[in-house]
Amino acid sequence: MSETRVHLSKTEPAAYQALDAFSKTVGQICADNGIDERLKELVMIHCSQLNGCAFCARIHVDRAVAAGVDADTLTQIPTWRESGVFSERERAALELAEAFTFISEDGISDEVYDQVGSVFTEKEYAALSWACVSINAFNRIVIAGRYPVPPRTQQAAG
After folding, report:
1. CATH code for 20-145?
2. Where would I find the Carboxymuconolactone decarboxylase-like domain in this sequence (predicted)?
3. Long-range contacts: 66-71, Cβ < 8 Å, 24+?
4. Cα(54)–Cα(143) distance, rounded to whole angstroms?
5. Which residues contact 20 (CB under 8 A, 6 or more apart)?
6. In whole angstroms, how far apart are CA 111 and each of 8, 18, 61?
């Protein structure tokens, strides 16, 4: 097993810089369309968990803590369907995150589209969808390159 992998962001920095700029645009679209940092970070964490991307999970957990997400909520993201801590909007966003992450299985089913669309406006749905596209792209780059998990930047709130 090769420990050294092509580091896409270093080997072709222009493409990575374009993805980073795209990510910043998506963040602004979320902010402009009513998706607060808490909701966006829950989506980013869930996609990263589903993809098995520890690097991105670490980054977005720290950002979620900075946005006021507590430890109890963070630990319940993988079991959001059974958990009572998430709002209707958060539950819909987590559902959409799963649909985008596993898009090759069922696409965005009519059931998910209708359910999420009943909770979010068209602009909110689009913003969250772009957020899912963005984090799934980063997850793939990081996982393929086996990027080491970065050190903590925040202490998790209890």
Report:
1. 1.20.1290.10
2. 13-99
3. 66/37, 66/154, 67/36, 67/37, 67/38, 67/41, 68/38, 68/157, 69/38, 69/41, 69/42, 69/157, 70/157, 70/158, 71/156, 71/157, 71/158
4. 9
5. none
6. 36, 33, 29
Tokens representing 134 are 């963005």
Burial of 155 by CB count in 10 Å (0-12 exposed, 13-18 middle, 19+ buried)? exposed
**106 half-sphere exposure, CB direction, 13 A CA radius:** 10
Dump pLDDT digits (tens) for 109-128: 999 999 999 999 999 999 99
- pLDDT tens for residues 49-107? 999 999 999 999 999 999 999 999 999 999 999 999 999 999 999 999 999 999 999 89
pTM: 0.91
Structure tokens at 73: 């909520």
